[in-house]
Amino acid sequence: MLVMGILNVTPDSFADGGKFDNLESAIVRAKEMITEGVDIIDVGGESTRPGSDRISIESELDRVIPVIKEISKLGTRISIDTMRSQVAEKAVKAGATIINDVSGGLADLEMLAMAATLNVPYIAMHWRGHSKNMNDRAHYGDVVKEVIAELQLRIDAALDAGISAQHLIVDPGIGFAKDKEHNWAIIDSISSFVDLGYPVLVGASRKRFLGGDSPDEREAATIELTRLLSTKGVWGVRVHSVKEHKNVMSA
Length: 251
Ligand code: PMM
Hints:
8 strands; 9 helices; binds pterin-6-yl-methyl-monophosphate; 8-stranded parallel beta sheet; alpha/beta; TIM Barrel
């Protein structure tokens, strides 16, 4: 299982906001992650924490492009965490080799065609709308069935847009328009997502459903989850710390 290390170049992400929002601190963190054995560094410039407002495309580009240019010199794989096709395009030109779109192509209707043109792996996450009011959309009858059906629609749209099946990665979108019970139901049924036939990425790191009063207090639970997911055929975990997750997988 791969470890995707989170590098949020944002002032306000819920767990690491403000820690790496200048070029120097972002590069230091990227180098640390590489030393610790990270497989992919996920660079994001727009926070998707519940309730957050969108930022302008200019601010997003200003945050991520210089960081990607520098990190790409370090020889690691980089994913760009963006919902915008123009950010994806410039990020790939700057050195990113994977597009991580939390909206699965729904936020920017040019995204799927752009990913097909750029011809790089594309992560389609389950999403029901922007973070500002996504919690209002956390209503399901059978959450596992509905999330799988909605993800399947994104898979079909991605394939229709010309993204090759070999380039598709899916993600159930833990914490996005889902409450605690929904997140745990998805984790419990993660094999059903693996059965879709595409690599599965899980981003549960330090999220609220794990309990605890602060993101840091959720680290131990996050590591336990990685241990569990590594036995379930999951392709990768998107996490804040790297070494701890590498260790638990090799234990
Ligand atoms: N979660 C966040 C941001 N990007 N990308 C994917 N593919 N999956 C996720 O679960 C995901 C994501 C929000 O968490 P953050 O604020 O720690 O980045």
